[in-house]
Amino acid sequence: MAFDKFIEFSQPVTVKSASGMETTTFQKLDIPSYGELVTKPGGEKNEGKQLVASRQDTFRIRYRADINETFIMEVLGTKYDIYWIEPENRRAYIQITATRKDNDR
Description:
Blueprint: E1 5-16, E2 22-28, E3 33-39, E4 43-46, E5 51-62, E6 72-75, E7 78-88, E8 93-101
Antiparallel strand pairs: 1-2, 1-3, 1-6, 3-5, 4-5, 5-8, 6-7, 7-8
């Protein structure tokens, strides 16, 4: 296993303005990790009459209990939405399945 990718995690933060409008932004957390990437083939689909290419990648990192599916992660400047987190090997590692889109953020 080569844990050679630097991964940063961000959590959603919802702020309500004085007029009552809610805005969600992402705040970087101070929990950097290193992991390895297993790339899977991607595909294209139509979202709102727009062709969007997406790809699911799986990352393996050392086990952490403080990460969940509402977070996003950034690897080498590319942002991913976390889709699935699965512990493996008696919680020595976790596998994170994340989705990347070509026109996202």
